[in-house]
Amino acid sequence: MLKLFEYNWQVRNEWFNWCEQADEHELTKERTGGMGSILYTLYHIVDVEYSWISGLQGREPQYVQFEDCADVRKLREYAARCRAEIAPFIHGWKDDLETNVLTDQNNEGEWENFSYGEIMRHVIAHEIHHIGQLSIWSREIGKKPVTANLIRRGLFKEEIKAEGKHSL
Amino acid sequence: MLKLFEYNWQVRNEWFNWCEQADEHELTKERTGGMGSILYTLYHIVDVEYSWISGLQGREPQYVQFEDCADVRKLREYAARCRAEIAPFIHGWKDDLETNVLTDQNNEGEWENFSYGEIMRHVIAHEIHHIGQLSIWSREIGKKPVTANLIRRGLFKEEIKAEGKHSL
Where is a divalent metal cation annotated to bind (chains A, B) (predicted)? Predict the structure, then answer.
């Protein structure tokens, strides 16, 4: 589970770097589909991860509204603060948390039960999906997107080293 | 790991259904970014999963070229055949396979080592990323995309039931 969060955090960071090299008006320009703009998509990714994982931690999240972090530097700072708050839970994840249940009220006011494992995977998939959307918009404005490859990121270096007997 | 493959297979199937309701020329129309068309993206998703997992199985994949399955019915059949071949490996996944190493030759002819855990997560993230791209194209042609939510799909029904003591 941790590896997929680390992957998302790497990719997200590379998108912040990408944003720093892009025209500012392209970042907030309204686009078709998804969350509507590049910067708002990145905000939404941070927001959704922070919200669900705070729920699993039993903490009250201290949100910042989009209007108050609607540039790359501020959003990056907000993302770093959110990540610092949730990281202990992600790093402390154990398989026996899988079947714990979070009870959450949805937008229609109904109470729903989710297993912790369901929430964790939802958060992972949520970010990857939205990053896929950014990659299309990136090409539309003529810029190369951040690579989405999970392999060749050094995320599994230790695992490969530990199995040296198989290496070339 | 299995849950994320099941999620991808559900979503993929819903995209095939979506394709059946779409104008055929929209499916093969060349688009900006990603793999260039909706149908080819779905082919690419099937192809990449089949290729990597066959590698982990030590099997020689029996590919079908895109030209030979370039409509929804044929691609669905090919996807079903590929999935049937790889499903035993996915269903039989155990954590102690994580650090096994696959040695693979890349496009530049260099040999690379990957842990099985790295490959599995790469395949999962690969599909979710490309599905995100489809969701943008879907809105561009004025159609509602398949939901990408991982929650509320019934994937964790058993886990919730087993923890009945927490339920409302």
Answer: 44, 126, 130
